[in-house]
Amino acid sequence: MSKALACNFKSSNELLRAVKSVSKAGIQKFDVFTPYPLHGLDEHMKIRSSHIPWIALFFGLLGAGLGYALQWWTLGIDFPINIGGKPYVTWPAYIPVTFEMGVLICALATFVSLFVFCGLPKFSSPLETDEFAKASTDDEFLLYVESKDSKFNESELRKIFEACHGHEVRWIGGGTHA
Fold first, then answer.
1. How far apart are CA 1 and CA 81, in angstroms?
2. Which of 43-47, 58-62, 134-138 shows the lowest mean pLDDT across its residues?
3. Torsion over CA: 91, 95, 99, 101 (sign)
4. pLDDT value for 178
5. Domain 4-49+135-172 carries which CATH code?
6. Peptide bond preceding 35: is omega within 30 degrees of 0, i.e. cis?
7. What are the CA-CA distances from residue 147 to residues 64, 94, 174 (Å)?
8. What predicted TM-score, i.e. pTM, was given to this entire model?
9. Signed CA dihedral, 14, 16, 17, 23: sign only
10. Bridge partners, residue 167, by sequence
11. Contact at 8 Å (CB) between 64 and 98?
């Protein structure tokens, strides 16, 4: 996180009004911290849906296919064993391993893609040292607007925050804005 202008709000309605105004002003590099999920916040922040479910589906199907192919190759082609005159390739016997390989590969791919898309690990954040930011985990709401946004205008943002009854407007992550 870079330098940013942050503001706390007492209620979710005030925060949602501020988010609408900030979004309407064309600012894209902002984030919101709330003590609980807020309905409709995603739409106002213009957050797109995640690609992680599609990645999980793809790798789950790939893992299941590889699990089935491994059993088919080893038990039917590479090293066939005649057990009681039964056929070499019997798909019902392959279902448990196929399912487990699908779940394993899906879980690993989801874990890795979550880390990649979220930019993890993050070892430090300027919000850790901000006393007012800690209130956003309890009973207040925090709006964090990065200064490197092309439409960033401090005076306009302060007007928005004031109009939406924000308090504790401050710079986070680098002292004053240069």
1. 60
2. 134-138
3. negative
4. 45
5. 3.30.70
6. no
7. 46, 56, 11
8. 0.73
9. positive
10. 8
11. yes
